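Input record (Table S2, row 428):
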Amino acid sequence: MANTASIEIEGKKYDFPLVKGTENEVAIDITKLRGSTGGVITIDPGYKNTGSCESAITFLDGEKGILRYRGYSIEELAEKADFLEVAYLLIFGDLPTKEQSEKFHNDIKAEAVVDEDVHKILDAFPKSAHPMGVLSSLTAALTAFNPSSVDVSSEEDMYKSVVRILGKFPVLVAWTMRKKSGLPLDYGNKNLGYVENILKMMFKVPNEEYTQNPILVNALDKLLILHADHEQNCSTSTVRITGSSHAGLFVSLAAGISALWGPLHGGANQAVLEMLEAIKTDGGDTKKYMAKAKDKNDPFRLMGFGHRVYKNFDPRAKIIKKAADEVLGDLGVEDPILGIAKGLEKEALEDQYFVDRKLYPNVDFYSGIIYRAMGIPTDMFTVMFALGRLPGWIAHWREMRLRKEPIGRPRQIYIGATERKFVPMEER
Ligand code: SDX
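Output record (s-citryldethia Coenzyme A complex):
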């Protein structure tokens, strides 16, 4: 393949270099396009054809259904690693040694306490507040209690910020859930593993001993790994562009949480359960919802289906679907919702509309069924997605700053009124 691309504009030819990645992806480098053509730019709503950066964190191939974190397949990591190992891998680039892993976990434990005044911010929210709004606010508020912004040139300073947020974020997640349930806040236990501690902070009731259930621990650990990163998705791109103005790590993460909340993105896992519940209430009439999803006049979409990149099965959906069977079986939970989900999947995969558009179940289609079996409320599902995605967001924020990327500021094509004179009020 030649290493340049030629574009002809009004009879004049312009050559631009091609950039090739380690997985043979190719991009046209248009950094000099506007300057060399006297102002011509590209336009690509939703950035469906546009790369925002070069990144070494995650590779995915939507046609082949491949997902790898720093070169390791999601299948291997979900089976053989634990969430903190994967967090270390995503953020620092390699799987940790035993010593690095122990130090990482101990340093995170040392940070797993949140300033008591955060309590007052939490108390100010009504119980009806959506947990994602609470979590985004509390995460941004952490800046007030940890004001020193990250000196990215200092490995030590960066490391300290990473373990600080990995320690405090699970507390905010658990407190967000307990706020809704009216349970007193739980402060965790340093003698527990990372995921065990999250479950204890979420579920321990004051007048009972909390007994760990290894089925729940393994299920949550796997779900967090599967959600840990996904290259330049909407929320990660939000974290990167927010951080590109040199805004702090915590507020960049708060911006990512807000972007993830949308039902077209991470909010889909909550929307999937609401859709499946509606189908169940409707007597399991999946055909009605399939028809709605295909009706151009109906804004309804089959939640948990389709993906910007995967035009084949989302490899995470395959793993989660299998885990849903295992977890519900191990817990002895009979949930008709799982049957409805499988029926809907079968129908969609045989329907020409979905086949033509290459719409397959994505990561959000089955995850909520496991969260529900674990006793997590539906409006907390996207908070669990954020808990998993945290290390990916941190990794991308760190990569963007270490690569000294410029502030993100897209151009536009103006389609509004051309110049006109001001009209005094009495003449309008
Ligand atoms: C996540 O980017 C990531 O990596 C995200 C994520 C991550 O890990 O960070 O993987 C997590 O966000 C997964 C996606 C969760 N969202 C949903 O499940 C919501 C339902 N899905 C869609 O809204 C949609 O599929 C998107 C938003 C996920 C992708 O939309 P695109 O790529 O912009 O595709 P599109 O809207 O242009 O759709 C192409 C066609 C259209 O039909 P035509 O106009 O060509 O006739 O497919 C149709 C769409 O109407 N379509 C659907 C559909 N998804 C697309 N029709 C019905 N139901 C759907 N779910």
